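Attaching the record inline, Q. Sequence:
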Amino acid sequence: MIKKNFSLQYYNTFGLNVKADFFYEFNDVSDLISLDYDFKNGKFFILGGGSNLLFTRDFNGLVIKSINDKINIVSEDNNFIYLKVGAGFVWDNFVEYCVNNNYGGVENLSLIPGTVGASAVQNIGAYGVEAKDIISKVYVYDLENNRAEVLSNKDCLFDYRYSVFKKSKNNRLLITDIEYKLTKNNHKYNINYGAVKDKLLNKKINLTNIRDVIINIRESKLPDVNRLGNAGSFFKNPIVDKKKFLELLQKFPSLVYYKLSNERYKLAAGWLIEQAGFKGFSLGRAGVYSKQSLVLINKGGAEPNEIIKLSDKIIETIFKKFSIKIEPEVIFV
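Structure, as predicted:
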């Protein structure tokens, strides 16, 4: 049943008190087929866990949310298992399920907030692993044309924090399930990130210990959304060419970066923001988290425009200081 004038305060991790004209939760495709809404002319938004977005105002349309949290084994052999997972499954619960069953490939993405469906939209990533590395297929329902489709990994056009689902013309594609390819044996551990590698010293390298270490790291740097409203990393790490990288390195020898290739370098946006003096900074009821400059927080009762103003101020200051334009990772709605 469609709910009207529905509060989204507990459906976005910033905890912003915004409302949707209409709100609908679905479990499977049959719920969508029977949904009476004009998707070709009406405004709508597909909501995951509300953890990577910023509602800029009340939403004058329909918000749709999956509550499908089923896991099914599609196929398996001695080395791999394919799992079809409902878009509404809480992401970290899925990671925990995989680690507990000795399914490898997803452990580095522990404690990322949100849902399974959002993992494909945003191509979530952390500690050298991205969702695209394990996604096999994405099941979608075309809301405007009333048909189900299946997209391959290649069809999704995955890139850094990007997928085909982020193209505005594809907002009609609602993810219902995702199929993941995971290892059962001979796991390829990705533990080269400094903090992960350091904390694993003198520990057995296995899925459980990697997950525990990453949870420990994330909890030490990121605020609990139940205490401080936030959307995790608010900004993308900017990628620059070699010329720009060398120019910055000469001016800022302590620059934090990750080499992607001989010509491309990813810079740590958190370092840039901290160097610009924003760590712990506040603007009204919005602020920058004192332990991680990539995170913007709702200090309590913040309005959407306060977070937007803070974001704009950071972007402008970074550009003046480094001649780099950083971009939000969160989706503005």
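The longest strand covers residues 173-183. The chain has a mean pLDDT of 93.

More tomorrow.
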